[in-house]
Amino acid sequence: MKTEKQCTKCGEVKSLKEFYFQKQDNCYRGECKECRRSYLHLWGQIHKLEIRERKRNYNQIHRLEIQERHSQYYQTHKNKWKLYYRFNKDKHHKSTRLYYQTHKLEAQKYQRQYRQTPAGKLIRRNAAHRRRALKKDGNITLAQWNAIKLQQKYKCYWCKRRFKDSELTIDHVIPLSKGGVHDISNTVAACKPCNLSKQDKIWSLM
User: Fold this and answer.
1) Fewer CB within a 10 Å sphere, N or C end of the chain?
2) Using alpha carbons only, what angle is made at residue 201 by residues 102 and 101, rounded to the nearest 5 degrees?
3) Domain for residue 40, yes or no?
4) Where are the alpha helices (H) located in the chain, listed in sequence order?
5) Nearest partner of 17 among 5, 25, 8, judged by Cα
6) Looking at residue 182, what DSSP letter applies?
7) Mean pLDDT confidence for 114-126
């Protein structure tokens, strides 16, 4: 029995272990694994947009089926995923941030579309309820808010750029979700980009 075979692509004689075995034909492929991988990678690069469009169409058609399959898999392996996330939290956050930076426009478009769905509206409504409940423990008057903007000379507290009065927003130095209070001691004026970027993180005071 042969233990070696010549690759039809690169012409090198290699061990049979370096070739893929085709069960349906009961024989080894003509090209070696390395040549096959190079060909598939090149084919994927050439037909990248076509493959992406095909995947998008498939996901749209089988959306409910895919969601159900993912849900069942997660329920079956819930403890495994929780354990993995606990030990790889920083890695997960880093990859998420990297993906968002490289696909920012796509992510923003998806988020806008998702907010218009029943599930997205429900999430926003529940978040608004929680935020209103947290604000009950404090109060900021209009005069105090105007005084804050005047004290900062209508500059964003974080990026130090000057903005119009209507472009500044209330930002809590310690987020309400992290135990911060809704009063003047925990409030600064921030531009919308900085406020959205900060989200529920705690940035150091400047």
Assistant:
1) N
2) 5
3) yes
4) 33-46, 48-61, 63-76, 78-87, 89-102, 104-115, 118-135, 142-151, 192-198
5) 5
6) S
7) 86
Q: Pull the structure tokens for residue 33.
A: 């694994």
Non-local CB neighbours of 173 within 8 Å, separated by 6+ positions: 180, 186, 187, 188, 202, 203, 205
- Would you say residue 66 lies in a domain? no
Residues 155 and 184 in one domain: yes
Q: With a cut of 80, say whether residue 136 has pLDDT above it.
A: no
Pairwise CA distance, residues 183 & 108, whole Å: 31
φ/ψ of 186, rounded to 5, equals -120, 20
Question: Which residues span the domain enclosing 194?
Answer: 139-198
137 and 164 Cβ atoms separated by less than 8 Å: no
Predicted TM-score (pTM) of the model is 0.44
Same domain (yes/no): 120, 143: no
Over residues 176-182, the mean pLDDT reads: 82
The residue type at 190? A
User: Is residue 79 in some structural domain?
Assistant: no
Structural domain total, the chain: 3
- How many Cβ atoms sit within 10 Å of the Cβ of residue 171? 21
In a domain, 50, yes or no: no
Looking at the predicted structure, is the pLDDT value of residue 58 above 80?
yes
Band the pLDDT of 206: cuts 50, 70, 90.
Answer: low
Paired residues of 155 in beta bridges: 162
Residues 176, 135: contact at Cβ < 8 Å? yes
Together in a domain, 96 and 121: yes
**Measured between alpha carbons, how far is 55 from 61 in angstroms, rounded to an integer?**
10
